[in-house]
Amino acid sequence: MNEKYNVYLVSDSTGETLDRIFLSLKSQFTNFEYEKKEFAFVRTEQQIDKIIKECSELQNSIILYTIVETKLAKYMSNVSEKNNVPCFGILGNLILSFSKLLNQKAIHKPSAQHVLDDDYYKRIEAIQFTMAHDDGKKLDDISSSDIVLLGVSRTSKTPTSIYLANRGYKTVNIPLVMDQNIPEDLKSQNNKTCTIGLIADPERLADIRRNRVAIMRENRIKEYTSLESIKDEVNQSKQLFKKHNWPIIDVTRKSVEETAASILKIFEIQKNK
Fold first, then answer.
1. Which among 251, 133, 257, 260 is positioned nearest to 198, based on CA atoms?
2. Whole-structure pTM over 0.90, yes or no?
3. What tens digit of pLDDT does each residue of 84-138 get?
4. Angle between helices 227-243 and 202-210 in degrees, nearest 10
5. Which domains does the chain show, CATH number per domain?
6. Which of 72, 104, 230, 266 has a CA that sits 20 to 30 A from residue 43's CA?
7. CA distances from 121 to 22, 48, 159, 248 (A)
């Protein structure tokens, strides 16, 4: 039986950055059993003392931290070492290396990434635009979008769109269903909007749809979950995408983040043509 670890994520800000780093880290270890505790807005030595005390009273404690204020980060390192608690600073060496490379002193300001600058407002605008254009709604101003996603039901269009919006990209997603018309602007050879088709393995789609039938109307359930019908839908969508030379991404074994990365790669290629 594997040992269970107590992982403490300590941040002087919201902890969002640290949590994402930990998710990436733990994905590399298949037999890693842990219990996670998160501490946000840790900005005093007293807060650190309390966390270290709790860690030292438990077996197999590990601390990961993002503290940008140099004195406090050093205090965290020293106190954890005194108490024999493994402790890893995520940003310290990186900030120092960048400082040397840029020949510029870091400001060491907590939450500096959350400043209300132009990028922040761009993301907010993109999120509002994307939510207003979700699932084929409001297609009259599609030319204002950065990215358009098309695909049959359950090909991760909405979560991928929201993820892209959080990155600052105005995204429209259009479901390929019988009564959904595709705007003529998209079909035009003069279309400059990055338009991408999403597909998935029909058997995988059938499994996902069967888990959704509880909220579907009874008379659509059979057609909606029929493997043969889904195969036809996917084949027709492929034909449509090829007809208009829209790039195709198979999302079957991709996370939303991986799908978005592929989309942004295509977006950059088309942008630089």
1. 251
2. no
3. 999 998 877 766 666 676 677 777 666 665 555 677 788 889 999 999 999 998 8
4. 130
5. 4-114 (3.40.50), 118-271 (3.40.50)
6. 104
7. 28, 34, 21, 31
